[in-house]
């Protein structure tokens, strides 16, 4: 499978714990995005990288959230001191660089449940 | 800021046609995407409009009118497998990020 992969697919944690998710984009894609999606809503943008540079962060991304893409390939999203409101599907997407049509390919997501 | 509106839910019969509308207010965008998302799965690309007019891809067509702040996705010859959520998304003028509407859940009945 040469699509976007995410691990783990599901994560259940207790409030206050830290969690880390991983995203492996399509290999030739240099842009990588993180979105969060709650039930019955569309995805909300969190942050994006071009190669290893984090170019934009949403105001949704509080100080407890941090994302990295150290070598411009895979990315990690860490949530510290999780809260029940963090429960959501975390989606990763990747695309090629370009100013016109370049669709984002989404991974299957990591579903986080905070108890 | 941006505001994107879609109906929450629509029901249609197998073999019929359904039109999903998307209206938006924004200061600027590069283009408009439609994605399909089955329950518990990732969104998958359906169509992209950058210029006004109709884009046709098999059973699916998408229309954009920038002056009216309006788009629609037309699904023809509905099949049971088309039961899914359909997401309208604006691609930002800078940075490439997508801003999504809340999605329209389409239920296809026999």
Structure commentary:
The complex is a heterodimer of chains A (115) and B (110). Chain A is mainly β and 115 residues long. Chain A has strands spanning 5-7, 10-13, 19-24, 31-37, 44-50, 53-57, 65-68, 75-79, 88-95, 105-106, 110-114. Helix content of chain A is 0%, strand content 49%. In chain A, a hairpin with a 6-residue loop joins β4 and β5 (44-50). The termini of chain A are far apart. Chain B is globular and about 45 Å long. Chain B has no helices and eleven strands. Chain B has strands at 3-5, 9-13, 18-25, 29-37, 44-49, 53-57, 60-65, 70-75, 84-92, 98-100, 104-109. With 110 residues, chain B is mainly beta. The A-B interface holds A 4, 31, 33, 35, 40-45, 48, 55-56, 91, 95, 98-109 and B 4, 30-31, 33, 35, 41-45, 48, 50, 87, 89, 95-103.
Computed structural class of chain B: mainly beta
The helix content of chain A, as a percent range, equals: under 10%
| Largest interface, C-beta closer than 8 angstroms, per-chain residues | A-B, 27 and 23 residues
Order of helices and strands of chain B: EEEEEEEEEEE
Write the layout of secondary structure elements.
The complex is a heterodimer of chains A (115) and B (110).
Chain A (H helix, E strand, L loop, with lengths): L4 E3 L2 E4 L5 E6 L6 E7 L6 E7 L2 E5 L7 E4 L6 E5 L8 E8 L9 E2 L3 E5 L1
Parallel strand pairs in A: 2-11
Antiparallel strand pairs in A: 1-3, 3-8, 4-5, 4-9, 5-6, 7-8, 9-10, 9-11
Chain B lengths: L2 E3 L3 E5 L4 E8 L3 E9 L6 E6 L3 E5 L2 E6 L4 E6 L8 E9 L5 E3 L3 E6 L1
Parallel strand pairs in B: 2-11
Antiparallel strand pairs in B: 1-3, 3-8, 4-5, 4-9, 6-7, 7-8, 9-10, 9-11
């Amino acid at each position: 499978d040469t699509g976007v992969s995410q691990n783990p697919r599901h994560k259940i944690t207790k409030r206050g714990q830290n969690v880390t998710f991983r995203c492996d984009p399509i290999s030739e894609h240099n842009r990588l995005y993180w979105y969060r999606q709650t039930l019955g809503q569309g995805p909300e943008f969190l942050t994006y990288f071009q190669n290893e540079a984090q170019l934009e962060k949403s105001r949704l991304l509080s100080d407890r959230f941090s994302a990295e893409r150290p070598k411009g390939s895979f990315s990690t999203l860490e949530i510290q001191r999780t809260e029940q409101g963090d429960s959501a599907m975390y989606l990763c997407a990747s695309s090629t660089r370009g100013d016109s049509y370049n669709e984002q390919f989404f991974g299957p997501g990591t579903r986080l449940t905070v108890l | 800021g941006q505001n994107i509106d879609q109906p929450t839910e629509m029901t249609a019969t197998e073999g019929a046609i359904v039109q999903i509308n998307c209206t938006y207010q924004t200061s600027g965008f590069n283009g408009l995407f439609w994605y399909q998302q089955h329950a518990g799965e990732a969104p998958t690309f359906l169509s992209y409009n950058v210029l006004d007019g109709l884009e046709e891809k098999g059973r699916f067509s998408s229309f954009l009118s920038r002056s009216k702040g309006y788009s629609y996705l037309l699904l023809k010859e509905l099949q049971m497998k088309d039961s899914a959520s359909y997401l309208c998304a604006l691609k930002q003028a800078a940075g490439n990020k997508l801003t999504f509407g809340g999605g329209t859940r389409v239920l296809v009945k026999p």
